[in-house]
User: Fold this.
Amino acid sequence: MGKERMDFIDKGSKTSLFISRLLSYIFLAFVTVLSLFSFYLLIINATRSNAQLQAGFEILPKEHFFDNLVTAWNDTSIFFLPQGMLNSFIVAACTCILTSYFSAMTAYGVCVYDFRGRNFVHKAIILVMMIPTQVSALGFVQLVNQVGLTNTYWPLIIPAIAAPATYFYMKQYIDSTLPLEIVEAARVDGSNEFRTYNFICMPILKPALAVQMIFAFVASWNNFFTPALLLDKKEMYTLPIMLSIVRSRINSQAGDMGEVYMIILLAIVPVVIVYLFLSKFIIGGVTLGSVKG
Amino acid sequence: MSSTTNAPVKHKSISYAGWGYFFIAPFVIVYVLCSLIPLLSTFYNSLFENYMDGLKQVGPNFIGLDNFVTLFTPRADGRLEILNYTGNTMIMWIMGAVPQIVFALLLAVIFTSERMKIKGQGFFKTVIYMPNLIMASAFAMLFFQIFSSVGPINQIIMSGGGSAYLFFDNEWSARSIIAFINFLMWFGNTTILLMAGIMGIDQSLFEAASIDGANSTQVFFKITIPLLMPIIIYVVITALIGGLQMFDVPQIITAGRGAPNNTTKTLVMALNSYIGTSKNYGMAGAVSFILFVVTGILSFIVFRSTEPKKEGKKK
Assistant:
């Protein structure tokens, strides 16, 4: 029925359909260029030597990609880039595991058990979901100083256990996909509740957990504000801090611009690679986790 | 794995309920320790005079609401700090958010159009969403390079016979670049949220409108937009909450100085320099409190606007 109607309309306005399609594709092409031009500039500039970069702009890549890579990788004058990548990776990996495991566990607790205060807990978590971390940063930095954990990764990793946005996402997912009969059945079979969660329910939640792990990893990898307040030893720097240092150095001395472009490229390349493999999956997760904003 | 499994079947729901506390305990404990207590102590700090004057520690002395008074009193140079930083944040947010919403709406309509059946949607969505996952600091550093006095843009200008334009020395070009990065990073995300909203609209409404002879412009303004209003409001407010936290991009681009002349310094940049650089914990507390109140009001609006819908779905 609907199909017939659509065909009827199409016949009536073939030209207008052609024009709107044409305009749409032109707009999409424009947006694609807009989204990609900065990455293109980044990549070609990372292939040019400092002298070539000073000489003028060119649209095609040059042959110094590996020279820049070696320079950026081995430079220890202000920090050691591979160390920063490793540091960022350690923090992001721990964060994403803790966030997804414990926030899912909380959502599971609220969905499955009818304990007193359950509604209050749910409402409270939703209410605090929008509070930015920056708002409590001062108190948090003071606390970290008092317990002597400055320049360690604990204050970046431990808070990941309580991620309200992940809780919200998992709560919705569990409500819609996890049949409580499974929990009942596991009880009849004599499974302990914690075991039921870990070995019977977690596998069912895998798709949602994976999405949340990716988002948590990326958020932590890109995080600048809190690490910048807590880490001031160069062995502990994460990538965003290193970028801020590269930026401040440009004010005082010119340096090798090819190396600067290469550092930027290396900072974003792991996330881009993961994204290109999993983009469908990630984009699908955006809507469900939309409260993240 | 012992006691609970032996529980009598008739009290099933009661005997297992206690497990709920076990499951929520790690989250609640960590939240209270790492967020709630720091939040309260941040506010407590706002009531004290507590800063470093050179190498000398001043305070902490209880001064009531004086930090807030300072924040809302013009300084010697005539600058009203809180207004200055909030103004900068809002100006740069609006400059990015307006094209962000417009582009996202257009793209969402294009992608969901039954009539046009756009091909290559997967590719286009992948491309427009990608900037959202890129490190904001790296983006900022890249644009700083691109627009620097010796960067590609200026090289193109100079090869055309012009002289180098110092983009980061003019308040409006600096603000525009920061706003543009924010736009670039978020319009893909907004597109995907709006698409979900459009696909939630009853398809028969579009068909009915077409049969009644409505053209696509009429459909867009008379059906799509009004029905999409709740999600547009949601998107705008959450974007505003995100915008208030603007930090990484202007911090990196201006190396933390909010140059030129404090015209790109945002609220959170001010907070960062109070905590980190000047160690003025009293003022940091006051700025945090204001940020909290504003975000709280905005969140409450979101909370109110989404709550009834959820209940509706459950029924």
Notes: Chain B has one domain: 67-314.
